[in-house]
Each structure stands twice: as structure tokens, then as C-alpha cells.
Amino acid sequence: QVRLVESGGGLVHPGGSLRLSCAASGTFFSINVMAWYSKAPGKQRELVAVITSGGHTNYANSVKGRFTISRDNAKNTVYLQMNSLEPEDTAVYYCNADILHRPAAPVTPYWGQGTQVTVSS
Fold it and tell me: Nearest to residue 35, comparing CAs of 10, 66, 60, 15?
């Protein structure tokens, strides 16, 4: 019913930039919090950035000043602008969205399939 589709990953050199997108499609009432997570080989999945429906943001310390999360509520899309990329940023990045299927109902979390980001020289 609800699908999150990520795009924008790829291979870049250190210092480069990528812009990830995640679009939610399907039938739902609204989207609450949206977030980006990363999963690097040998590491646990980590929260990268979060944005509320009102536009408030929080970031992992490792990406502060380099990444920017934003959203376009009209398009049901969340973005992650990734600048000054470092090899340590290499991971699969997953989109997460807490979705309300009806007013005043508990949110349901949805996940995208992930998009690979590789930072290498």
C-alpha cells in the first residue's frame, strides 16, 4: 500500500557530493517524521538525519555541517544533500517514514530498499 523508493546513490570521490531522494507513494493520510539511516559493512544501522513534519531537523554528529535533510511535503519526498563526502560515509542509505493512515492514529514505520553510497578514491 505504501512504498518508499530511494534514488541518488552512487560512486563519488572524497569531497564530492550526492543528493539522495526518497519518495513515498500509495494511500495514506499524512507523513510524520522522515529520516535517513545508514548501514556500513561491519557496523550497525545508524541514524543519519531526521526531519519532522514541521521541518525541525537533527543530525548525527558525524555528518553535522556536511549533510542537510529536507522534505517536500507536497511531493511526499525527503532529501539528503550530502556534501564533503568522506570514505567513512560509504554505506547503504535507507529512507524511513512514519506514516499515518488515518487521522489521530498511531504511525506506521516504512522503510525503503536502500541506495548504495560509495566514497572512494
Answer: 60
